[in-house]
Design a protein that fits this description.
The complex is a heterotrimer of chains A (about 170), B (about 425) and C (about 775). Chain A is of the alpha+beta class and about 170 residues long. Chain A is built from 7 helices and 5 strands. In chain C, helix 9 runs parallel beside helix 14. Classes of the chains: A alpha+beta (about 170), B alpha/beta (about 425), C alpha/beta (about 775).
């Protein structure tokens, strides 16, 4: 169906989706990866994304919404180009994760789940990201930054601001 | 990039290839990689299961179920295809051991998955990583692709006539999916809600077929066990607790990190010697010994061996091996609040006691921490938690209730210090925002 | 499965192995509470209310997921268990609004009942409850989120039961919420099953919400007046100034033929009865050509006098009678008796929606080959030919789906359209619209009957391998095709049949002889001896005019009078109003329909919810109709026929032979507020007669029906207790004339229409309008 002109995705993503649905014993297993990859490309799960993915998998849009609303990484509104996710769970909290969060709030001028006016950054307080032994840790999109201090955090944000940040997709 | 650590007391079995470039398949092969699977093919399923049973390996996800026994529950004959499902949805706060396995030794996971498949007669394996581990997923994807390229995966592996495929899968942010039946739901493209048991996955699992679900660390241990022999592996650990384990020591220690220690290793030693003691020379207030769901230990309770049985006797659990060390300048109410906030956020909402219980615990503890507590709140917190214990659909309810009971029992004085409009006498951070 | 023995609360119980503990206990009278468990839906184990203590198990176990096992020892009400349930309720009440005094569910709420039982009276929390505004999801479904306890019954019944899947669950944890498929509204079949199963007041009905309290209503279980399935619906009625009004329809006790099911019409489309434009006074056409309200005396005398004059001047053959698909068996029977013995005519007919005559003929002398509605939920294999039950027989569709889902029944569907039930079908065969007869030939072994294809061959092979088959066919089959179908079916080892017709008493209308050539029980008018003896009067022996012939006769000026009871043939058959210019037309109806507008006399009639009697659904299940509502000014068709006969000089005691039988009605059939008993009493007192029997007692007529129609000789006792009784169709003796016109005109109703009656339901109108693609189905007649 990627070859169909109706797709809202890039040819690469559409091709990837074509393949994804063939990997599993049932098509539906591709749903969660597809939603995540769609979000990576579009920025969020729009109504159009829901519609196309429902059609690709052969389930109802309601089904897609039921699933997407369950997973905390999936969002139905745009985030910033760089989504700064600060872990404040126990291991990070003990090593000043909240300090990092406060620092980011001040530096970016936004709060939890807010986006900077230029759309470059959004900020999110998140649950444990599996970097407990290198706390405090932050994920910017999919990239991890650990053993942070406010100074290191500034440097990282500077890099992203200047377009020098890592961009794992 | 996660920093690798080292300590002389470590016994490096599962971590022996860490830091040696084993993400490269040729390097992995050079380091005895893909030997175990070939032996496994040669000797057959019964031998594999016998070795696994002999190894005394118990599930590294936290429940500690003997792996060999789990595999032996899968029916030999099945109308539906069987599957191996590797649980890499590592999400328990305090736990980051699978993180380093995927990062440093992805082929061990691939090889372990294949061996598990051989043991139960599955032709397909899934390696499920939490959505946040995208960079690790890429490493795993490459490892799988390289194994296919070498002909290790796919049709007729190692000329055995056996086919085996592996698919890597990403989650999208849900702690509950770490529960094995919720993991299957998620892999089937559904909400990560647990299933009714029985039937157990070994009989009716993924896509209705018999399924073995193992934690990534468990699976990564498998090739090592076959290489060194089950009995030899068992000897490394303590009684009924074979082998080693990756312990992630985090929080207020001098040298946090993931250390591989023999099962039964003393917790106090792990904190004070392996991890270098309490940061800045402060005193110890508490230890959460196996991820956030395990009941807290006080300093006088930590002279105990790190295995499933000894920790059980100490009134807590070995859990996921995530040891969180808390110094004497920490507010335990805030710590309890951060813990329950997590479980409230992650409750799937399926059953009433967990869905509502975590929420009321969060609200009540939050209010107490903020200075708005009233006398009955403390009994109420305990009443709530005790009425969740054992009553929820899946263990998440217990995971929220157990530590809460621990905090209120062992640190009730700190809760009392917050009552009646008093500000937090311990905390140095603001009231945590709501996620 | 083999039985196992186990102990519950010290009692030794026995149940088949595999039975769920909760069901086994219920069967033994031990009630285990549950919010999420609902029989025949998938298991949830989510509410944790059904926890019990099972010996040797470390934790409390959910009785809804535990199958009973040999030697199991169970406690269901210990202090530990009570505490667990109490704690669960406390948690629910933490955020549940305590708006019970205004909540629709108040008094019928499972959460309220459980709170009462387990005494979770103390509020443990001081936080403010989260409020959210109520949402309207459809004309009939409203959602009040804070009241929802997330039992998922609605989600499951919509998906698993209805195969609609319009409800889902979104978000997680404490934010989890039931969500409709249209994001802020529902796109669904509007069956209302979600509301029915909701244990609290989270889902409420647009027709009922905020109208009354459950305890202010009387609840009368009767039969739905709409389609041919004949579901039991319980009408909630309360007193109003002009009688008693229906406030609610639901499936309260679930004891009926429809089991758990009721569709939107049975649930909501009672509102026609409460309309202000209902006729409540007799109308007579005046010299100025307009209809005007007159007294009952005047109207009855006028109509009776005219009919008598016409009968005497021109003979009975100049009078026609058209009966109804929605009146009771007793009324239909009485109408034909009135026509034949008092008007002296066989010109009697009704709007036929299935060829029951051909069906009766095909099965004459063959007993045990008809299937009741209940059989459709248990037959191991079913062949569905034609029709679209999802729209036209919702209860049948429910049964077929449930049967496939729960019993792994094999459903074979052949249709010219891709009907929804193909999703449950083991095999679906698409055939041309005119290919139904050929299909039977093909199934019977004639390979050349249809274009060869593998699918058809596999379909035929599978059907012929079935050891027991239920064949359900739509009105696509008529006359000889039914004979061929039945012949084919009987060539298989064990076959039953069901013919699908459209309205609540279409089958009854045919059974009761609303036909020009057949008396009740399909006895040819030429062989009326038995009836002559019973009636003590001669009957016309020549077949009369059928419905179309009557209008042709009217057009020619050969029909001097026409008596139409509860029918709207002018709209349904597109009759030219001018055709009736010279015909004296008497109409009994609730509304001034297209037919009533042409009448010389119009009598305001009661509807099925305002009378007692019996009806027969399309499967031949005979059921009791109870009087629920009452409207000042209207009269039952039964009463009107009797009074008309009386005014024509006939003896009511001969028309309704009360006192002759041994059964009669002892009051069982009457709703508590009916007022009908009073009317009996008045008449009886005035005529110095024994109590409880009068010419207005339809059960005296049922006595006569049971004397004359062998297939209606069913248990009166069971019937009066509200149990459906299968008609003994094999007892029908019939030899229909060859070349007989079947005259079948399917109603073609959609899920949201119901002939003329449906047009008077505001709720159905709203539903039709709210659906983006309203079905432009024919909505006239009956």
């Amino acid at each position: 169906m990627s070859t169909s002109a109706t797709t809202i995705f890039s040819p690469e993503t559409a091709a990837r989706f074509d393949r994804l649905v063939t990997l599993y014993p049932v098509k539906r297993s591709a749903l969660i990866p597809m939603l995540l990859y769609a979000q990576d490309e579009i920025g969020y799960i729009s109504d159009e994304v829901v519609a196309e993915i429902a059609q690709r998998i052969g389930i109802t849009e309601l089904d897609v919404r039921n699933v997407l609303s369950y997973y905390s990484m999936l969002r139905t509104k745009p985030a910033g180009k760089y989504n700064v996710q600060v872990c404040t769970n126990i291991s990070c909290m003990l090593r000043d994760g909240y300090g990092i969060l406060e620092h980011c709030k001040k530096r970016l001028g936004i709060g939890h789940k807010e986006v900077t006016p230029d759309g470059l950054f959004s900020l999110e307080e998140v649950e444990c990201i599996g970097a407990c032994c290198w706390a405090p840790a932050v994920q910017i999109n999919y990239d991890f930054y650990d053993e942070l201090t406010p100074e290191k955090m500034d440097q990282i944000l500077d890099d992203y601001q200047a377009g020098r940040g890592k961009e794992t997709v | 990039m996660p920093r690798l650590v080292s300590h002389p007391d470590e016994v490096k079995i599962i971590s022996r290839r860490f830091g040696q470039g084993a993400t490269d398949i040729d390097k992995y092969i050079e380091l005895d990689g893909y030997k175990a699977v070939q032996t496994a093919i040669e000797k057959g399923a019964d031998w594999i299961i016998a070795e696994m049973k002999a190894s005394g390996l118990r599930g590294r996800g936290g429940a500690g179920f003997p792996t060999g026994m789990k595999w032996s529950f899968v029916p030999k004959q099945s109308e539906r295809p069987k599957y191996v499902l590797v649980n890499g949805d590592e999400s328990e706060p305090g736990t980051c051991k699978d993180h380093v396995i995927f990062l440093h030794d992805p082929h061990a996971v691939v090889e372990g998955t294949m061996i598990a498949g051989l043991a139960i007669g599955a032709k397909m394996g899934f390696i499920y990583l939490r959505g946040e581990y995208r960079y690790l997923l890429k490493i795993m994807e490459k490892a799988v692709a390289d194994a296919y390229a070498k002909g290790f995966l796919g049709k007729n592996i190692f000329g055995s006539g056996i086919d085996f495929d592996i698919v890597t899968q990403t989650g999208a942010g849900a702690y509950e999916v770490g529960e094995e039946s919720a993991l299957m739901e998620s892999l089937e493209g559904k909400r990560g809600v647990p299933r009714i048991k029985p039937p157990f996955p070994a009989v009716v699992g993924l896509y209705g077929g018999p399924t073995v679900i193992n934690n990534a660390e468990t699976i990564a241990s498998v090739p090592h066990i076959l290489l060194m022999g089950g009995e030899a592996y068992a000897k490394v650990g303590s009684e009924r607790n074979g082998g080693t384990r990756l312990f992630g020591i985090s929080g207020h220690v001098e040298r946090p990190g993931v250390y591989e220690l023999p099962m039964g290793y003393n917790l106090k030693k792990a904190i004070y010697e392996v991890a270098g003691g309490i940061r800045g020379g402060r005193g110890l207030k508490a230890v959460v010994p196996g991820g956030s769901s395990t009941p807290v230990l006080k300093p006088e309770e930590i002279d105990v061996g790190l295995d499933f049985d000894q920790m059980g006797k100490a009134g807590t659990m070995l859990g996921s091996g995530g040891i969180v060390v808390i110094d004497d300048q920490t507010c335990m109410v805030e710590f309890a609040l951060r813990t329950i906030k997590f479980y409230q956020h992650e409750s799937c909402g399926w059953c009433i006691p967990c869905r509502e219980g975590t929420d009321w615990l969060k609200k009540t503890i939050g209010r107490v921490h903020a200075g708005g507590g009233v006398d009955k709140d403390l009994d109420n917190i305990r009443y709530l938690a005790e009425n969740m214990m054992g009553r929820t659909f899946c263990p998440l309810g217990d995971a929220a209730a157990m530590p809460t009971i621990g905090f209120i029992k062992k640190f009730r004085n700190e809760f009392e210090d917050h009552l009646n409009g008093k500000p937090c006498p311990y905390a140095h951070t603001e009231e945590p925002a709501l996620v | 499965m083999a039985d196992v023995t186990f102990t519950v609360d010290g009692k030794k119980l026995t149940a088949p192995a595999g039975t769920l503990l909760i069901d086994a206990c219920k069967a033994a009278g031990i009630e285990i509470p549950a919010f999420c468990y609902y029989p025949n839906l998938s298991l949830q184990a989510a509410c944790r209310m059904c926890v019990v203590r099972i010996e040797k198990m470390p934790k409390l176990q959910t009785a809804c997921t535990t199958p009973v096992a040999e030697g199991m020892v169970v406690q269901t009400e210990t202090d530990e268990i009570k505490q667990a349930r109490k704690a669960t309720i406390e948690l629910l009440l933490g955020n549940h609004p305590l708006d019970c005094p205004v909540c629709d569910a108040g008094g019928e709420c499972e959460l309220q009942d459980m709170t009462f039982k387990y005494g979770a009276a103390e509020s443990k929390y001081i936080e403010i409850k989260q409020h959210r505004e109520e949402q309207q999801w459809s004309p009939v479904v409203y959602f009040d989120r804070p009241r929802c306890i997330l039992c998922y019954r609605c989600v499951r019944v919509c998906g698993e039961g209805m195969d609609v899947w319009a409800l889902g669950i979104q978000n997680r944890g404490v934010s989890a919420v039931i969500a409709p498929n249209g994001q802020d509204h529902l796109n669904c079949e509007e069956c209302g099953m979600c509301i029915d199963l909701c244990p609290v007041g989270a889902l409420t009905s647009g027709t009922y919400r905020y109208k009354t309290r459950p305890w202010e209503m009387n609840h009368v279980a009767t039969i739905c007046t709409h389609c041919g399935d004949g579901c039991k619906t319980t009408l909630g009625v309360r007193r109003v100034n002009d009688g008693s009004e229906i406030v609610r329809g639901d499936n309260r006790d679930k004891s009926g033929i429809n089991g758990d099911f009721l569709c939107n019409k049975g649930r909501y489309a009672f509102d026609f009865a409460n309309r202000t434009d209902r006729l409540t006074k007799p109308l007579v056409r005046q010299s100025d050509g307009k209809l005007a309200e007159v007294s009952w005396d005047h109207a009855l005398d006028f109509a009776a006098k005219k009919l008598r004059e016409i009968r005497e001047a021109k003979g009975g053959q100049s009078i026609g009678v058209i009966g109804s698909n929605r009146t009771t068996n007793e009324e239909n029977y009485l109408l034909q008796k009135f026509a034949r013995t008092i008007l002296g005519t066989n010109n009697i007919d009704h709007h036929r929606t299935a060829d029951y005559v051909a069906f009766a003929a095909a099965l004459a002398d063959k007993s045990g080959h008809t299937a009741g509605l209940r059989d459709t939920g248990s037959a191991p294999a079913i062949l569905l030919l034609g029709n679209n039950p999802t729209d036209q027989h919702p209860a049948l569709a429910w049964n077929l789906r449930s049967n496939v889902r729960l019993n792994r029944s094999r459903l074979y569907v052949a249709n010219h359209a891709e009907i929804k039930l193909r999703r449950q079908a083991k095999s679906f065969l698409e055939i041309p619209q005119d290919g139904y007869a050929s299909l039977i030939q093909y199934l019977a072994g004639n390979d050349g009957a249809i274009a060869a294809n593998d699918n058809a061959a596999a379909f035929r092979d599978a059907i012929r391998k079935e050891e027991s088959l239920l064949i359900i066919f739509g009105s696509e089959y008529r006359g000889r095709d039914i004979q061929a179908l039945v012949d084919f079916g009987l060539s298989l080892p064990n076959t039953k049949f069901a013919a699908l017709g459209d309205y609540v008493n279409s089958r009854g209308a045919a059974d009761m002889g609303l036909l020009p050539d057949l008396l009740p029980g399909y006895v040819p008018v030429t062989k009326a001896e038995h009836f002559t003896d019973e009636y003590g009067a001669a009957l016309p022996t020549a077949p009369g005019l059928d419905l179309l012939q009557m209008f042709d006769a009217a057009q020619r000026g050969d029909l001097s009078a026409l008596y139409v009871v509860g029918s709207n043939p002018v709209a349904r058959f597109g009759v030219d109003p001018d055709a009736l210019k010279h015909t004296f037309l008497v109409v009994q109806d609730m509304f001034l329909t297209e037919t009533a507008q042409l009448a010389d006399v119009v009598f305001p009639a009661a509807n099925l919810y305002e009378k007692a009697g019996t009806v027969t659904n399309t499967y031949g299940d005979i059921q009791l109709v109870k009087k629920a509502a009452d409207k000042a000014g209207v009269r039952t068709d039964f009463e009107l026929i009797v009074r008309l006969a009386d005014r024509m000089g006939a003896d009511p005691k001969k028309l309704v032979p009360f006192g002759k039988g041994t059964f009669a009605d002892m009051g069982q059939s009457r709703g508590a507020q009916s007022g009908e008993a009073d009317r009996h009493a008045v008449w009886l007192a005035a005529n110095h007669l024994e109590p409880k029997l009068s010419p207005f007692d339809p059960f005296a007529t049922l006595d006569e029906i049971q004397r004359l129609v062998p297939s209606y000789q069913v248990s009166r006792l069971e019937l009066l207790t509200g149990t459906d009784q299968p008609e003994k169709f094999g007892l029908v003796q019939i030899q229909p004339a060859t070349g007989r016109r079947d005259l079948v005109l399917p109603a073609d109703d959609s899920l949201f229409t119901s002939g003329t009656l449906g047009r008077y339901s505001g709720m159905l109108k709203d539903i039709v309008e709210s659906h983006t693609t309203p079905n432009p189905a024919e909505t006239a007649a009956d």
